[in-house]
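Thread title: Can someone regenerate the structure for this chain?

I was given the following input by a collaborator and told the matching structure tokens would be attached. They weren't. Posting the sequence so someone can regenerate them.
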Amino acid sequence: MSGTALETAVVGFRGAVGASVLFGGHLSTHQAAVLFPGTAFKIRVEDLRHVINERREARAHIAGYVEALTLHCAQTGFCGVWHHREERLASWLCLARHAADSDVLPVTHDYLSSVLGLPRPGITETLNEFAKQRLIRKMRGVLQIDKGNCLEQRACACYKFVADAYASSGSEISA
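Best answer:
Regenerated them for you:
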């Protein structure tokens, strides 16, 4: 699939993009893309460094978040090699649901195929199966998660591992 990018993490409203530069990183190794509508805040690195130097709890929170995000990225690579399409897709949907704090995800089959590195027909087949089981509803360009707890049970162990890492950092995704 040329021209696509493999997604390594889903960052939600409790997250931060680029926070690793606060802890010695000088080069961004990731590219961020906005998928869901909403509001985001931007802060200059110098200003954030001042805050985390003045407030130890802010530094600890951001450091914990960066650690969880790093684990998330690494686990995504592992997941892509070892887990089946159904488990990976369920895991992605659950992580995205919590990151967006919404049961409505504005995503297409093409997008999911691209970021998961899976063939589109397989994505469609799996989503159809989830819909048949009433876990989700599919609408044009939107997925509605109806039974999040049941979908979580279909996800691979990576979902709980990543969600627990964020919860431990205080940037919880409740699994």
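Residues 56-82 form the longest helix (27 residues).
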